[in-house]
Amino acid sequence: MARPPCCDKEGVKKGPWTPEEDLVLVSYIQDHGPGNWRAVPTRTGLMRCSKSCRLRWTNYLRPGIRRGNFTEQEEKLIVHLQALLGNRWAAIASYLPERTDNDVKNYWNTHLKRKLQAGSGDGDGDGAAKPPAHRPPPSNSKGQWERRLQTDINLARRALREALTPLGDLKPQPQPQPQPQRDGAGVGIVGGDSPAASSLSSQCSPPPAPAALGTYVLTADNVSRMLDGWAGLNWKRRGGAPGTPGGAETASTGSSSEVSYGGGTAVVAPAAGGPVFEYETKPPAAPFQLMMPLSAIESWLFDDDTHFHRPVQSASLLDAAPMDYYLL
DNA sequence: AACCTCCGCAACCGCTTATTT
DNA sequence: TAAATAAGCGGTTGCGGAGGT
Question: Which domain holds residue A102?
């Protein structure tokens, strides 16, 4: 089938986003929620293609994103998941709350891969650099490969469990009650590679304050604060040139997220009144230590076979492995 | 201080998959 | 059922900062 260009090549702006563009996009998403990206450029007047808008939102503007400073546990998790899943960054990122696939991918390419290569002569310290046993051949569609993985989930779980076992004295622990909220209005923005992953990631996060759970409100007040930040003129691109946000660092306080732009801060917070939408499956983060994700995964791993064969109806952690549906 | 090289990351590109008509 | 379209994903690139000489 003929595929039209995703967007007009003429008149489409490229390159770094400006604060103004960010504001326009955030404001639009505040009103309409993420999705229908095709309509975003026309409705907002942004001279960007829909893809660019989506990417900007998912990788940068979306609340709940944490940037930089990967913890050791995150590193290990990425390494092991990469060994298990291959370069399926969206799937891997879905196990890391607050991390985008782009972030994970970049971190892998710039840090972890090199570290692994340095760590062992063959460039394969713990096997992560090898093509994973379950990695689909390029010609396979993702669906096909998912099914393969599903049929082989026992092996996969065992591999992951073994991979994670050396992580230390972490022990399986009871999981918080599952959160029914799963997709929200902003469905499938990030890491939607499998419902499993999304669900697990939500399970992995500390339970936020109920009012904040998956809720994102950008009030007019907040927008003005954001503008204040942008107007500061001292903003840098990761401490550098003006013109682009220095990184919309998000830090959650449990009931709100702060999106920092240089010197300014826009608070993305639940608020009474005003549009509200659930932005996606990854809830805002609590002060981040990545304790829950590992615990959840471990719990899932150690819980192991007891849940096979069981019809999965709830949003429990087991939903994280819809493969269970297919297990014999 | 100037230049060069390396590194990190945001964004783009092209392909695949999912959904709609 | 097929075509058209939208969305998602992963690989790659280019820019700007940091550090070294």
Answer: 68-116
At A82, which CATH number?
A: 1.10.10.60
Q: For residue A318, what pLDDT is reported?
A: 32
Say if A28 falls within a structural domain: yes
Closest Cα to residue A70, out of A37, A38, A98? Answer: A98
State the virtual CA torsion across A141, A143, A149, A151 in degrees, nearest 10.
Answer: -120
The answer to the question of residue A90 being in a domain is yes
Strands (E), chain A: 215-216, 249-252, 257-261, 264-268, 277-278
Q: Are residues A43 and A75 in the same domain?
A: no
User: Cα A291 vs. chain centroid, distance in angstroms?
Assistant: 16
How does pLDDT run across A247-271, given as a tens digit for each residue?
Answer: 333 333 333 334 433 333 333 333 3
Q: Which nucleotide is nearest to A109 (CA to C1')?
A: B8
Ranges in chain A, pLDDT < 70:
1-10, 117-328
The pLDDT of residue A95: 80
Q: What is the distance of C-alpha A181 from the center of its chain?
A: 16
Domain match, A77 and A105 both = yes
At A99-130, the pLDDT tens digits run: 888 888 888 887 877 777 666 544 333 333 34
Domain count, chain A: 2
Distance A106 CA to B7 C1' (A): 12
8 Å CB contact between A270 and A178: no
Q: Report the distance from CA of residue A309 to the C1' of nucleotide C18 in Å, as an integer.
A: 54
Name the token pair of A15: 């390159």
Residues A80 and A102 in one domain: yes
Global pTM value: 0.56
